[in-house]
Amino acid sequence: MTAATHSTLFPQVPETADAVLDGLDPEQREVALALTGPVCVLAGAGTGKTRAITHRIAYGVRSGRLQPASVLAVTFTNRAAGEMRGRLRQLGAGGVQARTFHSAALRQLQFFWPKAVGGDLPRLLERKIQLVADAAARCRFRLDRNELRDVTGEIEWAKVTQTVPADYPAVVAKAHRDAPRDPAEISQIYAMYEQLKRDRSVIDFEDVLLLTVGILQDRHDIADQIRNQYQHFVVDEYQDVSPLQQRLLDLWLGDRDNLCVVGDASQTIYSFTGATPDHLLNFRTRHPGATVVKLVRDYRSTPQVVHLANGLLSQARGRAAEHRLELISQRDPGPDPVYTEYADEPTEAEGTARRIRDLIAAGVPAGEIAVLYRINAQSEVYEQALADAGVPYQLRGAERFFERQEVREAGIALRGAARAGGNDSLLDDAEDLPAQVRAVLSTKGWTSQPPSGSGAVRDRWESLAALVRLAEDFARARSGATLSDLVAELDERAAAQHAPTVQGVTLASLHSAKGLEWDAVFLVGLTEGMMPITYAKTDEQVEEERRLLYVGVTRARLHLTLSWALSRSPGGRASRRPSRFLKGLRPGSGSLGTVASGASGSFERGAASGRRKPRGPVLCRVCGATLTEAGAMKLMRCEDCPSDMDEALYERLRDWRADQARELGQPAYCVFTDKTLMAIAERVPATGGELSSISGVGARKLDRFGADVLAICAGEDGGAGLDES
Is the pLDDT assigned to residue 5 strictly greater than 50? Predict the structure, then answer.
């Protein structure tokens, strides 16, 4: 097989069952061959667990020992289930059900509801927050938006832990759970929420599991029908199973033991949702004859990254820590982790953006870089810094790729062009498949250069550009492929939710980064109070925070940077301390007793940004209040203080920015963000010094755009052009 006809994106289906086993390491092969009885796979980060279990299923199907329709593989996210379906399809094991717990349960509930209960299944409530708000109002409690979100989360936790409203206060006290409101009040809201659901004939996602469990417990004939259908079960990320999901799994199994579970107790980071590693840790007790396989060969990360990950867990305490896996990197050595201390958060964000820009200049694709933080509220300052540095980015958690409106429209257009064939004039001058796709998608908004701006237009273009790149990869992998072949591939990927990558640096919370990986990872904001988070009080909660950082570290393949800021805002008191989890790991931090790994890596103090920082706190120039938010500091005023912006100047600056972005072939925010333009239009700088004092105007941008901006502020055209020096 030559490079011209084969690629890792489109691998050939193995010709035989034995060929499915090719390329597996000894432990992965042991997993693949263990097709009967209870099997427990303890799989560390980056050790190829998905590869092991999908090859296990595929080998069983291809060898005739498993019937595809008899296998149910369950996991926790649609993305993970889609990836599993895609891999199984590539291995020649189509027809296997790979779903989330909720998806599998909902399918069964919809099918059996008329028989078990009668009538139509109640409408599924997509978002419960409005109903919780109505319940709180009925109980005469006033909740702001944040309280409403927290109470909704508590109701979800109560339901997956099978806690009824009346028992909620006692269960919370026993679990030492920090409730967001008086537990008695939450209990009342929870009870009213359940009543309103009944009154309005709706169910929520947790009800899907609860009702399925209820039917299987009460109707043995239905339980037997499901057990006759599914003979073999595989559960991925088993450390994240909740008590309710475990109960459903037990009912699916009945008295059989053809169950394979895969997990890592050191990656248990969702206890706030009811997840517990106890089921994984107790598996061998419940199934004494289970086959247990440990995967510790790390194929993802360099020895330097693995060394840090192992050292981080060597300090852990508790039951999960007793079962930690010592990873062994299978990669060549790479650069040491970098630890960087900054004076304040904006400087940390700017320093991170500069490092990212340097990595991209050195050849690391933007899509292979991630900035990970503890809470989503930390993203704004990094969005701003990346925009100021001219670096494209994307926020994790957007709508799934094949569900986007523009992708659906593109699929319809490509399908129509494929049916028309040579009768479509759009394709007259298209010499090959990628050219045909570019021609068709040009009618939907794709252009050879990205549009200016960072909003919906840019998002649409990125989606279409991802389809173009996919077509180019497909053509390289499948010599002679037609537009019809590509449409069929897109349909299969849409069914499996196997999306191509949209380029851009990823900004994500540590929780949402679980299951992902990048060449370069920046772990930011690693201070006491943020990592561990301030509300982690008990030893168990603090250990979960350590595991969360471990998950972040193990997302990195090659480059890893860990940073923290000593104060929140410029000029603030340097009272913060680096996270306790780094003690004994970062150079010069001492040791915590017997730390197996020892300290390694390089320690730096982040240089100040190109402009001079204020020496004292940043004050609002309107009311004099101390500013702490990045956007407010950029404007030098509180967000709700009156603006004295010159609207006409602002519009001239926006027009100028659009021209610059087109000429540079970059998004408009890479020239200046909207907030930077607002700050310029408010302060109307007359000199380079005044302009450079505005946040978002560093030395590089001052050199490149300063003359134009000052000319526009002076009432001139600003047509001096680009200074490329």
Answer: no
Task: Tell me the C-alpha distance between 447 and 425, whole Å.
Answer: 19
DSSP 558-615: EEEEEEEEEESSTT------B-GGGTTTSTTS---SS-SS---SEEEEPPPPSSPPPS
Tokens 């996991």, located at residue? 75
- Whether pTM exceeds 0.90: no
Mean pLDDT (the chain) is 83
User: In Å, how far are 43, 268, 645 from 240, measured between CA atoms?
Assistant: 14, 6, 51
Cα 219 to chain centroid, rounded: 39
Q: Following DSSP, what letter does each residue of 625-642 receive, concatenated?
A: PBP-SHHHHHHTS-TTSP
Angle at 393 between CA 392 and CA 398, to 5 degrees: 140
Task: Compute CA 554 distance to the chain's CA centroid, rounded to the nearest angstrom.
Answer: 14
Nearest alpha carbon to residue 54 among 281, 331, 260, 328: 260
Alpha-carbon span 435 to 122, nearest angstrom: 48
Cα 121 off chain centre by: 32
pLDDT at residue 725 tops 50: no
First CA to last CA across the chain, in angstroms? Answer: 48
Cβ proximity of 553 and 315 under 8 Å:
no
Give ∠ CA 247-251-252 in degrees, rounded to 5: 115
Give the start-end residues of each E strand in 283-401. 291-295, 297-298, 328-329, 338-344, 369-373, 393-395
Q: Taking phi first (over 0 means left), then psi (-120 to 50 degrees means alpha), and beta for anything else, what does residue 92 get?
A: left
**pLDDT beyond 60 at 590:** yes
The Cα 60–Cα 33 span in angstroms is 8
pLDDT value for 689: 84
Residue 522's pLDDT band, with cuts at 50, 70 and 90, is very high
Task: Say whether 508 sits in a helix, a strand or coil.
Answer: strand
What is the tens place of the pLDDT at every residue in 299-337?
A: 999 999 999 999 999 888 888 778 888 999 999 999 999
Give the dihedral sign, CA 626/629/635/637: negative
Task: Name which of 43-57, 356-370, 499-513, 590-604 the model is least confident about.
Answer: 590-604
The whole-number average pLDDT for the span 254-278 is 87
Instruction: Using alpha carbons, select from 639, 607, 610, 612 the residue that is nearest to residue 623.
Output: 639
The HSE-up count of residue 517 (CA atoms within 13 Å, CB side) is 15
Integer Cα distance of 333 and 354 in angstroms: 25
pLDDT digits (tens, 9 = 90+) for 678-694: 889 888 888 888 888 88
Nearest residue to 558 (alpha-carbon basis) of 396, 311, 333: 333
Output the DSSP codes for 458-483. Answer: HHHHHHHHHHHHHHHHHHHHSTT--H
Contact assessment for residue 294 and residue 264, using Cβ atoms and an 8 Å cutoff: no
Range with the poorest average pLDDT among 112-121, 253-262, 281-290, 443-452: 443-452
* Integer CA distances (angstroms), 241 to 39, 182, 208, 277, in order: 16, 28, 16, 7
- The DSSP bridge pattern shows strands 291-295 and 202-203 to be unpaired
Residues 6+ apart with CB under 8 A from 226: 108, 216, 252
Q: Where are the alpha helices (DSSP H) in 161-277?
A: 168-175, 183-200, 205-218, 220-229, 243-253
Residue 597 confidence (pLDDT):
42
Q: Residue written as tokens 């590693």?
A: 277
Q: Is 43 left (phi over 0), alpha (psi -120 to 50) or beta?
A: beta
Q: Kindly give the interhelix angle for 205-218 and 243-253, rounded to the nearest 10 degrees.
A: 40
